[in-house]
């Protein structure tokens, strides 16, 4: 996988928290339960997998911790997912200006982070953990994904009630993540996997043009 190519109508690409960087299709095959050729626009994420598997297995989800996700079984039959908590993304090293995103139904709010921007890297440099632990949300943008899949029109001034609601939710989730996140030591990424990637010819030849 590499962050190049086209994301179609979606904004930006891998490494961003606009939908071009975080939205991917999901395919399910379940004979007798999922109708072949059916399509669902219900958004789900990796945190929904555990509650879904628990429901499929007929066991209770773990009660010793708060689960961020919800079972997406209703979506497999074309139904909405009841009580779905907002979807949340945070990538302090995102290529996009926004580093945090939250989605609730058709609405998506993105925000930047204060402090010195962190460079895309697999390692941890001196002072970066302090930057992460002290950063605050800033530069909010609100989008209606039903009407604007490309995230081109910021609606926070036009829909102040939606903006206020999502901003409150994002602030709460962000502070929870910032507080609970570990503090890692300084570490240099050796980039071993880069030596094993079979890069396509158009990428290897990009500097020859």
How many domain units?
A: 1
What's the level 1 CATH class?
Answer: Alpha Beta
The portion of residues forming beta strands comes to 5-15%
Per the CATH scheme, the topology name is Arylsulfatase, C-terminal domain
Radius of gyration: 19 Å
Q: How many β strands by DSSP? A: 4
Number of helices: 5
What structural category arises from helix and sheet content? alpha+beta
Using the 3D structure, state the CATH architecture. Answer: 2-Layer Sandwich
Order of helices and strands: HHEEEHEHH
Q: Describe the largest sheet.
A: 4 strands, antiparallel
Shape: globular
Poorly predicted residue ranges:
none
Helix content: 10-25%
* Largest sheet strand order: 1-2-3-4
Q: What is the end-to-end distance?
A: 23 Å
Indicate the mean pLDDT.
91
Secondary structure layout plus pairing:
Layout: H1 19-22, H2 49-57, E1 87-90, E2 100-104, E3 107-113, H3 128-134, E4 137-144, H4 160-180, H5 201-204
Antiparallel strand pairs: 1-2, 2-3, 3-4
Detailed description of the structure:
The protein is of the alpha+beta class. Strand 2 and strand 3 form a beta hairpin. It is built from five helices and four strands. The protein is globular. The mean pLDDT is 91. It has a four-stranded antiparallel beta sheet, with helices on one face.
Provide the descriptors you would attach to this structure in a database record.
5 helices, 209 residues, alpha+beta, 11% strand, four-stranded antiparallel sheet, Arylsulfatase, C-terminal domain, globular
């Amino acid at each position: 996988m590499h962050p190049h190519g086209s994301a179609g109508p979606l904004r930006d690409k891998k490494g961003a928290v606009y939908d071009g960087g975080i939205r991917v299709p999901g395919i399910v095959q379940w004979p007798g339960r999922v109708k072949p050729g059916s399509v669902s626009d219900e958004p789900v994420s990796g945190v929904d997998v555990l509650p879904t598997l628990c429901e499929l297995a007929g066991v209770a989800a773990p009660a010793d911790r708060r689960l961020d996700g919800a079972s997406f079984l209703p979506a497999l039959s074309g139904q909405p997912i009841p009580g779905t908590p907002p979807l949340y993304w945070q990538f302090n090293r995102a290529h996009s200006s926004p580093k945090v995103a939250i989605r609730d139904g058709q609405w998506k709010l993105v925000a930047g982070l204060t402090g010195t921007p962190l460079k895309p890297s697999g390692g941890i440099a001196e002072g970066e953990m302090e930057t992460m632990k002290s950063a605050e949300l800033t530069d909010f943008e609100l989008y209606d994904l039903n009407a604007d899949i490309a995230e081109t029109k910021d609606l926070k001034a036009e829909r102040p009630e939606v903006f206020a609601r999502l901003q409150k939710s994002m602030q709460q989730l962000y502070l929870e993540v910032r507080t609970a996140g570990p503090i890692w030591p300084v570490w240099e990424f050796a980039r071993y996997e880069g030596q094993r990637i079979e890069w396509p010819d158009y990428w290897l030849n990009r500097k020859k043009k």
